[in-house]
Amino acid sequence: MYRDTELFRGMRDPAKLHGRCGRCEFAGICGGSRARAFAVTGDLYAEEPWCAYQPGSFPFARAALAHALSAATADAAGYGPGAAQPGPAGRDDA
Ligand code: SF4
């Protein structure tokens, strides 16, 4: 359901966002709370009402996005901080 329904696919699509979230360079890794946007405005794709960020105002956005994407790639490949760590020496079941 999470992966395939139109509703959830839409919520993960930054191109559907409106307002500041729709203009934000971080929409692809943030996107704001869709639940909060819907609760406050009735529009599932409205801008995140509690976010104070003004799109384009962070001077290191490109470097931050590159870091976030490289971390996500490392996670997906099993090398990031969320990857399983080796167990204690001598234990195969950890
Ligand atoms: S405006 Fe705020 S909540 Fe929306 S995508 Fe950008 S950082 Fe996230």
Largest sheet: none
**Span of the ends, CA to CA:** 32 Å
From the spread of the alpha carbons, the general shape counts as flat
Please give the oligomerization state of what you see. single chain
Contiguous runs where pLDDT drops below 50 for at least 5 residues: none
Structural class: mainly alpha
**Residue fraction in strands:** under 5%
Hetero groups in this structure are:
iron/sulfur cluster
Helix coverage percent of residues? Answer: 25-40%
Task: Tell me the radius of gyration.
Answer: 18 Å
Overall structural domain count: 1
How many individual β-strands? 0
Mean pLDDT: 86
Per DSSP, the total helix count is 4
- Output the helix-strand order: HHHH
Give the topology.
Layout: H1 6-11, H2 19-23, H3 34-41, H4 61-77
The structure holds iron/sulfur cluster.
Describe this structure in words.
It contains 4 helices and no strands. It is an all-alpha fold and 94 residues long. The chain has one domain (6-76). The chain is flat, with a radius of gyration of 18 Å. The chain starts with 5 loop residues before the first helix and ends in a 17-residue tail after the last helix. The model has no long low-confidence stretch (mean pLDDT 86). The protein binds iron/sulfur cluster. Iron/sulfur cluster binds next to helix 2. Iron/sulfur cluster is lined by residues 20-21, 24, 26-27, 30-32, 47-48, 51, 53, 55.
